[in-house]
Amino acid sequence: MNKTHKVAISIDRKSAIPLYQQISSPLEKAIISGKLPPGELVEDEVSMAKRLRVSRPTVRRAFQDLVNQGYLTRRRGVGTLVTPARVHRPLKLSSLNEDLRLAGFTPTTKVLSYEVGEVGEKDGKILGIDPREGVLKMKRLRYVDGQPLAIMFNVVPLAYAPSWTDINGKGFYACFEEKGVKIAYASQSVSARLADSEEVVLLEEETEMALLTMQRTSYLEDGTVVELGRHVYRPSLYSIRFTLFND
Q1: pTM over 0.70
Q2: What are the pLDDT digits (tens) for 150-162?
Q3: CB 205 within 8 A of CB 74
Q4: CA–CA separation, 182 vs 218, rounded Å?
Q5: Distance of alpha carbon 41 from alpha carbon 51, whole angstroms
Q6: Nearest alpha carbon to residue 181 among 166, 193, 198, 168
Q7: Are the C-beta atoms of residues 88 and 241 closer than 8 Å to each other?
Q8: 51-93, pLDDT tens digit by residue?
Q9: What are the CB-based long-range contacts (under 8 Å, 24+) for 87-91?
């Protein structure tokens, strides 16, 4: 179990600076300086409130300010940790699994569901197939260095679907490559929304939070759709990077 790190904090009750800021400021400095490294477990609210002789809501607000700024991350059943290095992903047609490895992270995946069923009207229209046609629907939870990063839901026509064994041991796009399926281009949209109760649990968040969302439709050279993906990411751990050019 991680050792809890206690930061030296001095409270001046005569100061005009709010108490919660007197707590968050030294914590922020300790994180920026590296004294509190990524992944470090921070002293819990109860212990800190008792040590500093302040109310627990005061400590909670200090922590929440740092969570909002991306310095701290709260994990259900673990506690409050210094946020790990963010995943800065380039905006290109690539596999998240491979992008993470190239960036020096260690990705792992848990398959939450893997089932064959009718595609339905909405997704059938996007995939260009009959609503009654069978497709693979799978949901996966992607971890980075042991922390939950993303929930990924994909719909794949059966002709291109990876096996349960393959998807457990390899990246999704690696499975495509082994089948000789070459994705030529994709359309992608990025947005944000509040997490639902299931996502809060899977991503080990304490409360409902805003998630970064991505929807991707991938095509072969002839325009055949081979994948529909709907993914959600923790914004405290994930961002998208792209380059703009001036024509």
Answers
A1: no
A2: 999 999 999 999 9
A3: yes
A4: 10
A5: 17
A6: 166
A7: yes
A8: 999 999 999 999 988 887 777 887 777 788 887 665 545 555 5
A9: 87/144, 87/149, 87/237, 87/238, 87/239, 88/239, 88/240, 88/241, 89/238, 89/239, 89/240, 89/241, 90/240, 90/241, 90/242, 91/240, 91/241, 91/242
